[in-house]
Description:
Layout: E1 6-14, H1 21-24, H2 44-47, E2 70-73, H3 85-93, E3 97-100, H4 105-113, E4 117-120, H5 123-133, E5 140-144, E6 149-151, E7 157-159, H6 164-172, H7 176-181, H8 184-197
Amino acid sequence: MEKFTVLEGVAAPLRMINVDTDMIIPKQYLKTIKRTGLGKGLFSEQRYRDDGSENPDFVLNKPAYRNAKILVAGDNFGCGSSREHAPWALLDFGIRCVISTSFGDIFYNNCFKNGILPIRVSAQDLEKLFDDAERGANATLTIDLERQEIRGPDGGVIRFEIDPFRKHCLLNGLDDIGLTLQKAEKISRYEEKAKAARPWV
Length: 201
C-alpha cells in the first residue's frame, strides 16, 4: 500500500448528504475483484448521461476538478452496503482523502485498509472547506497526516483527530498483509518448530 504522508492537491466539493456506496460505485461494476479500472465507474450515474456522454454539471467532470485528489463531501458519506469497491473506485480515480462530518462505519474502515484517509471535521470546518473547494483549480488543500492538519489556500489550518494505530499504518503504507509480513520471521520460526514437532502433518 502506498504511504500517506503529505497530500497536496485540488479538492472537489460534493455538496450532497447520505452519499451511499451504490452511488459511489453502482452494482454493475462489482463483478471484478481487481482494484484497478474502477475509476471510470466512480459516480457513474451522476457523471454520465443515459447515452454515455459526460454530464457537464457533475463536479468531477468540470475541468478544474478532473484531477482532484481530495473530496469534500456532505454528512454520512459512504453509508449503505459494505462494498470495498467504493474505496477502490475513489483510489483508482486518484482521490486519496475524503473529508466529511461523518462516514458510514464500514466504508470508513475500508478506506484505511486501502490507503485512503477519511477525515472527520466539524460542520463549521466543513463549510470552510467547501468554500475553499469551490474556488476551482485554486482549491488546493494540503493534508499533513503527521501533523494532523488540513492547510487551506489562504494559510488557514484545521486540525483533525485520528486513531494512532491507523495513523501509523497509513504513514508506513501498511495494510493487513503488510502488518502480517512485519512478523514474517516469527511466523517462519513457528512453522519450522511446528514442522519439527509434527512431521506427519
